[in-house]
Amino acid sequence: MDEKKASTYKLRHGLDTGTALPSFGSKPDLAMLRQTMVDRQIRTFGVTDRAIIARFLEVPRENFVPSEQRALAYSDLSLKIEPAKPGSRRLLAPMVLARLLQEAEVYSGDRVLDVAPGTGYSTAILAGLARNVTALESEPELQALVKSNLSTLGLSVPVFSNALPDGVTERAPFDLILVNGAVEGHLEGLFAQLRDGGRLATFLRAPSDPDLAACHAIRFEKIAGQISSRVLFDAPAPLLAPFREQPQFVF
Questions:
Q1: Does residue 248 form part of some domain?
Q2: What CATH number is associated with residue 46?
Q3: Is residue 250 part of a domain?
Q4: Peptide linkage before 173 cis (omega within 30 of 0)
Q5: Residue 185: inside a domain, yes or no?
Q6: What is the pLDDT of residue 10?
Q7: Three-state DSSP class for residue 236
Q8: Comparing C-alpha atoms, which of 26, 7, 27 is closest to residue 15?
Q9: Which active-site residues does the annotation give?
Q10: Number of structural domains, the chain?
């Protein structure tokens, strides 16, 4: 492999100059790439929670990305999972998801609602961290993918198909709700499904910003029926269309 190709490969996969490259004549060492993702991306983004790190090492992300993008499964990119559709959905970058989960504080006894998991990667991560996880995916094709991908790993997680802002009333209340993307509003239905002391973690985007502009990762908390919020960090996140605010007309 010439030096230019090696450099491109290292940048794409988060490898530094001291890391041995997999052979291009054989299948890549996915376990090594997963370890590199954790060491070079997740840990360096301030993630220190041992349970979260262990889970990202366990779950094969290549199973949750489109086949044409599997070479990028362990990159630090937010990957499109519906490339043929305008405003297509994306998986959060691994380090962004890991940091959001750490700040949300996932406990083993939690009841968790995973909103808009796309292909189910975040659900698979959560299923190893909390005792009771429910997935909510409104797109029929993606819902089928979530079920199939989780089944392949032997994970039994109920997957619902309601509109994303509606949550899953029959499984509420939840200790934690994770929303996999940016929102501008329409969180009232999800707030109502938090138990007292429950948290909702997502990304808040100003309506005037582009879809992948830097957003504020934010943690909401419900205390005595009141919702408070705390900004966690800045990161790019795709806007989830059902949480888009309608333009306000001024006369």
A1: no
A2: 3.40.50.150
A3: no
A4: yes
A5: yes
A6: 35
A7: strand
A8: 7
A9: 88
A10: 1
Q: What is the pLDDT of residue 207?
A: 72
Task: Report the alpha-carbon distance of residue 219 to residue 217 in Å, rounded.
Answer: 7
Rounded to the nearest angstrom, the gap between the alpha carbon of residue 25 and the centroid of all alpha carbons in its chain is 32
User: Residue 187 is which amino acid?
Assistant: L
130 domain residue, yes or no = yes
Q: How far apart are CA 147 and CA 145, in angstroms?
A: 5
| Token pair recorded at residue 218 | 């934010």
H/E stretch holding 79: strand 79-80
- Looking at this protein, which amino acid is placed at residue 114? D
Q: Do 222 and 191 touch, CB atoms closer than 8 A?
A: yes
Q: Which residue range is the domain that position 10 belongs to?
A: 3-17+27-243
What is each CA distance from 176 to 92, 126, 132, 196, in whole angstroms?
A: 18, 11, 10, 11
Residue-level pLDDT, tens digit, the chain, 251 residues? 343 433 333 333 333 333 333 433 456 788 999 999 999 999 999 999 999 999 999 999 999 998 888 889 999 988 988 655 545 789 999 999 999 999 999 999 999 999 999 999 999 999 999 999 999 999 999 999 999 999 999 999 999 999 999 999 999 999 999 999 999 999 999 999 999 999 999 999 877 665 556 799 999 999 999 999 999 999 999 999 999 987 655 44
* Both structure tokens of 80: 């499109």
- Buried b / exposed e along 16-34 (16+ C-beta atoms within 10 A): eeebeebeeeeebebebbb
Find the angle CA(114)-CA(30)-CA(100) to the nearest 5 degrees.
30
- Cβ neighbours of 232 (radius 10 Å): 17
**Could you give the C-alpha distances from 228 to 198, 201, 218, 221, 225, in angstroms and in order?**
11, 12, 10, 5, 10
